[in-house]
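Backbone geometry tokens:
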Amino acid sequence: MRGLSQAALKEDGVKRLGYRLVGKLLSTKLVNRVVFMTMILKIWRTVDNVEIEAIAGTTFSFTFKSAEDQRQVLKGGPWSFDKVLLVVEKPIGKGDIQTMRFNKVTFWVQIHRVPLLCMTIEIGQFLGSMIGDVQEIGVGKYISVRVVVDVTVPLRRIL
């Protein structure tokens, strides 16, 4: 460690933060950390290994070896373990975990029974925005909308 300059240490820290995600299981109960860490790797099926560190309670740090694996995990969610939602966030700034809120999750929502006249991206945008922040829209047999939802706010039963 003595031979590393402050600039080299900072550069290494920034690089590691770039490939890191932080996740929190939304549960009041503690989980078996060893089982969680083993299972989440099997669920994610990344190309390279992922370093997992238990931070506190139900919060974990995930360090990826490639941006592609990290992107796959972010895009492939939502994730759950033992029927508990795992909220995964990319740290920003210096990566202060204390300031991370773990309240936003991306879901694919299917909207069925839409009249053919209304099967458009614009209607998908309109309906999806009633649920959350729209990320992607697909139109086929039904409208599919990828939305970011604040999991601390109850969902409305009817649009």
Summary: The chain has two domains: 6-100, 105-150.
